[in-house]
Specification:
With about 700 residues, the protein is of the alpha/beta class. It is built from 25 helices and 27 strands. Bound molecules: ligand MGD (2 copies) and molybdenum atom.
């Protein structure tokens, strides 16, 4: 037998991760046999993470949804029967038309970054919902607190080139666990380490990354703003400020300087739950190392004061002039570099709203619903403030029942009998289980797309490697067919997926020939973009004092001893819920090999906190607060610092131990900037499910 000739197709990883890898997909006889990293793409460097190297396993998963399905059981039960495409699309169009005739805002699209593609994300779907006049979705669930903070400080979501971290002498890995969540950045950090750089990890959890850094500073969740102010205090009193850079390129520093002087290391250390020496030492190193770089990540902005904290940290490299060198500065997100390179208005056609609401600029338009408060909003009645009750939700690229905060309410909302829910999915997720109709979507191996990135500066093209499996259709094709059934005749609804992918970028900014030939193209951006200021603010200066926001400050967590002493007495443990290494948010939880690696939902707890509660490693515990209860296995471990427990995310509720996941415990209060969830601002208590006989004695002994 001669094997069918192998063919290699160029692709892009679609997942929500800073690395956005360039893929090489090997196809034999119409079947994908290998998904590998492109060795030529500098950030990917030929390597993929464990999850995406299993992408074929996910695509050929026996539980893929491969036909449209109609619900036959109760909502949430997950019982469906196959339905033909025509019947499914006719039913959906009829229902949406009837609702839209009363008020199109009663229809809500709900999507996030299941794929980050410009075509299969907010491409044809955005055109469809704009034309319908549906409610807009405020996409806040991940990064908007930090994103708005970065924009307030630098003018846009811009930062260092990831490649130049390899040349840094000191790297602060701040609120980020790159061994889990961006291995390609970690590769550059290791190059720097081998060349003698020092790596410091600032994270409440002793992560795999923290273990491999020279130093780990395990501050309390939500105290990063206080640490940054303490560092500024030291930079001022030891005169480590680059006065020339600050005078020319920073607006509002004199006032912030006064505030920083109120944060001696003793105060910062007390607030952060760390030692005074840790604050002093870090300030000294940051002041002296040239070049010094900060890899900030969104892990530290999922608290009430996340926006303020990002503003403060983002100012540090402006104060020391670290930006003067290409290997100095900060990277939280690079997505702002793509502004103007991505043809958003053409891809998404917000002008189509005018067919429903009249010319833009007349103050009319649909309301906006925040995706982070979907739990409350699905349960809300019509009111003048809110507008119409939500009557239909169309979900794509997201699994809100698992990932949105306060999930008991989210599940109750999606269980509403009078809510019409359509879910485009690969699998029967917790959310799809609540659908009236599930539509089978293609994976990245089966469709066209175009990608930008938020951790590097390359645009990418994804070509389909194989034909769609079963009856699956791409998201774009599903919305194209729905548009036809709704009677929308605008020519944009006829654009093919390939035409949209190829047309996604401005030819003047993205080299179409390079994109075609190698699958990726680098944006032209200066190596040291802010060496001489030039921030994308109106006056080119970074802003310590931002219009409408004033000066940044430390803002204590909603759920903390400072803000809520009574609550903290009942629920004394702070819980964070960072990603598990082998999952990507709630994606891959159903891939057997990856779930086997994670084994069970886990809660890491420090030995001291376990002892006072009589808890042992491996036993099933109840984690609870006023919002609900979550069962998982306790791991007594120094990955958790005293007073903080780590509930690793984000399991599918139905694959958890008792039908819930960690978001049963999180709340819907929003961050200071960006209207985002405060997932890591959450107090809990932990108890044995069946208290061991010696628990009382152990608690007495430890107290
Ligand atoms: N394997 C894997 N990779 C992923 C993801 C995943 O789920 N799994 N998620 C992807 C997504 S959606 C995103 S947005 C990106 C980035 O995703 P992030 O959620 O930013 O992921 P991490 O890099 O793991 O950074 C979170 C780190 O912040 C720490 N942390 C929690 N609270 C605080 C705090 O108050 N202060 C500080 N300093 N640290 C805190 C956590 O312990 C954790 O180690 O990663 C992406 N990559
Ligand atoms: N407690 C807690 N909660 C969190 C977080 C946390 O750290 N702790 N992290 C938060 C963060 S950072 C984020 S970004 C959100 C993520 O939330 P989501 O963006 O909802 O991410 P996923 O859970 O990965 O769900 C994406 C879904 O999209 C589907 N999908 C993928 N590709 C396609 C496609 O081409 N078409 C269609 N139709 N579907 C597709 C996948 O099968 C998957 O079910 O979760 C947030 N929730
Ligand atoms: Mo995210």
């Amino acid at each position: 037998m001669t094997p069918a000739a192998a063919q290699t197709v160029r692709g892009a990883c679609p997942h929500d991760c800073p690395d956005t890898c360039a893929l090489r997909v090997t196809v034999e006889g119409g079947r994908v046999v290998r998904v590998a990293g492109d060795p030529d793409h500098p950030p990917t460097h030929g390597a993929l993470c464990t999850k995406v190297s299993r992408y074929a396993e996910r695509t050929y998963h026996p539980e893929r949804v491969l036909t449209p399905l109609v619900r036959v059981g109760r909502k949430g039960e997950g019982r469906f029967e196959p339905l033909g495409w025509d019947a499914a699309l006719d039913a959906i169009a009829a229902r949406l038309r009837a609702i839209a005739a009363r008020d199109p805002q009663a229809v809500l699209p709900y999507s996030y970054a299941g794929t980050m593609g410009l075509v299969q994300g907010e491409g044809m779907a955005a055109r469809f919902f704009h034309r319908l006049g549906a409610s807009r979705l405020d996409r806040t669930i991940c990064s908007s607190a930090g994103g708005d903070a970065l924009a307030a400080t630098y003018g846009a979501k811009v930062g260092m080139h990831v490649e130049f971290f390899a040349e840094s002498r000191l790297i602060l890995i701040w609120g980020s666990n790159p061994i889990t969540s961006s291995v390609h950045f970690w590769n550059f950090a290791q190059q720097a380490k081998r060349a003698g750089a020092r790596l410091v990890c600032i994270d409440p959890r002793r992560t795999e990354t923290a273990e491999k850094c020279h130093q780990h500073i395990a501050l309390l969740p939500g105290t990063d703003g206080a640490l940054a102010l303490g560092l500024m205090h030291e930079l001022v009193v030891h005169d480590a400020i680059d006065h020339d850079y600050v005078a020319r390129h920073v607006h509002g520093w004199p006032a912030l300087r006064e505030r920083a002087l109120q944060w001696p290391p003793e105060s910062a250390a007390a607030t952060c739950g760390i030692s005074v020496d840790e604050v002093r030492g870090l300030a000294r190193e940051y002041a002296q190392a040239r070049p010094a770089a900060i890899r900030l990540n969104y892990g530290m902005q999922r608290v009430r004061g996340g926006g303020n904290a990002v503003r403060l940290v983002a100012l540090l490299p402006c104060l020391t002039g670290a930006w003067r060198h290409r290997a100095g500065g900060l990277l939280l997100s690079s997505s702002g570099w793509f502004a103007g390179a991505r043809r958003d208005a053409w891809l998404q056609r917000p002008d189509l709203l005018e067919t429903v609401y009249g010319p833009a600029g007349q103050g009319r338009g649909p309301r906006t619903v925040n995706m982070s408060t979907i739990g409350d909003d699905l349960l809300r009645e019509a009111s003048p403030a809110f507008g119409p009750r939500i009557e239909a939700v169309v979900v794509y690229n997201s699994n809100p029942v698992a990932v949105a905060p306060d999930s008991a309410k989210v599940a109750r909302g999606f269980a509403r009998e009078d809510l019409y829910t359509v879910v485009l999915e690969h699998f029967l997720t917790d959310t799809a289980d609540h659908a009236d109709i599930v539509l089978p979507a293609t994976t990245q191996l089966e469709h066209w797309d175009a990608h930008t990135a938020y951790g590097h500066t390359y645009a990418l093209l994804n070509e389909p490697a194989i034909a769609p499996l079963g009856q699956a259709l791409s998201n774009a094709e599903i919305f194209r067919r729905l548009a036809a059934r709704m009677g929308y005749t605008e020519p944009c609804f006829a654009d093919s997926d390939e035409a949209m992918a190829r047309g996604a970028f401005e030819p003047a900014r993205v080299d179409a020939a390079a994109l075609q030939a190698q699958g990726w193209a680098r944006l032209e951006i200066p190596e040291a973009p802010f060496a001489d200021g030039g921030f994308p603010t109106p006056d080119g200066r970074a802003r310590a004092d931002a219009p409408g926001l004033g000066l940044p400050d430390h803002v204590p967590n909603y759920e903390s001893v400072q803000s809520a002493p009574e609550l903290a007495a009942r629920y004394p443990l702070a819980m964070i819920s960072p990603p598990a290494r082998h999952f990507l948010n709630s994606s891959f939880v159903n891939v057997a090999s990856l779930r086997a690696a994670e084994r069970e939902p886990l809660l890491e707890i420090h030995a001291r906190d376990a002892a006072v509660r009589g808890l042992r490693s491996g036993e099933v515990v109840r984690v609870f607060n006023d919002r609900g209860e979550y069962r998982c296995k306790a791991v007594v471990s120094d990955r958790a610092r005293p007073g903080v427990v780590n509930g690793l995310g984000i399991w599918w509720r139905k694959l958890g131990l008792a039908g819930t996941n960690v978001n049963e415990l999180t709340h819907q209060r929003l961050t200071d900037l960006g209207r985002a969830p405060a997932f890591y601002d959450c107090l809990v208590e932990v108890a044995a499910v069946a208290p061991p006989v010696n628990a009382v004695a152990a608690a007495g002994a430890a107290a």
